[in-house]
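> call design_seq(struct)
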């Protein structure tokens, strides 16, 4: 589990095509400062497992499913990526509960800078719109953000200078694809309500 508070930007140093998978090597400092083989690290919001480790880099295998359903399918050497280590019992939950399981890929539609922040509009897959509410949480490329305005086909977020400076969202351009993960609590609530509604309907019919 993660919190959506990006710890640092890493740099992709190797992208090794393995046919039905890709092996990524990423250079960083903080994310591997106490890492061990088998640990989980979120890369642009996608939970990956440490498969190899050096003093300055770590390596992970990205399976075909992740390549097809996340923006990692288009990753290249030199790309910067958001990194966050998995939480511990002592971690502050500064963002919200993030699983590292990408629900879909969105696209940046517009960026509107102002003096102290920047409003970004992101288009999202149609099936994800129902999970978003104004002032609710969403994870964009592993970054926990508050939804300013939720629509069926897109949503907006406001990026403060800290977020712009410390994450990839500071240099993402219009047309860029970003990984999205909706609030897992919203998904659980939907499932519970659907099950309750189904039982109620069945009971009335009987």
């Amino acid at each position: 589990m993660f919190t959506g508070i990006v710890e640092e930007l890493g740099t992709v140093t190797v992208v090794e095509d393995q046919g039905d998978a890709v092996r990524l090597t990423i250079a960083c400092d903080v994310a591997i400062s106490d890492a061990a083989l088998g640990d989980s690290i979120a890369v642009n919001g996608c939970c990956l497992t440490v498969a190899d480790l050096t003093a300055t880099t770590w390596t992970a295998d990205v399976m075909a499913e992740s390549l097809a359903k996340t923006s990692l399918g288009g990753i290249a050497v030199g790309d910067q990526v958001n990194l966050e280590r998995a939480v511990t019992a002592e971690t502050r939950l500064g963002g919200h509960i993030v699983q590292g399981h990408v629900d879909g890929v969105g696209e940046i539609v517009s960026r509107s800078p102002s003096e102290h922040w920047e409003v970004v509009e992101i288009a999202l897959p149609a099936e994800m719109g129902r999970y978003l509410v104004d002032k609710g949480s969403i994870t964009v490329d592993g970054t926990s953000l508050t939804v300013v305005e939720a629509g069926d086909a897109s949503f907006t977020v406001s990026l403060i200078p800290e977020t712009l400076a410390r994450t990839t969202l500071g240099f993402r351009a219009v047309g860029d694809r970003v990984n999205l993960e909706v609030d897992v609590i919203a998904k659980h609530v939907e499932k519970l309500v659907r099950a309750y509604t189904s039982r109620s309907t069945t009971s009335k019919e009987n």
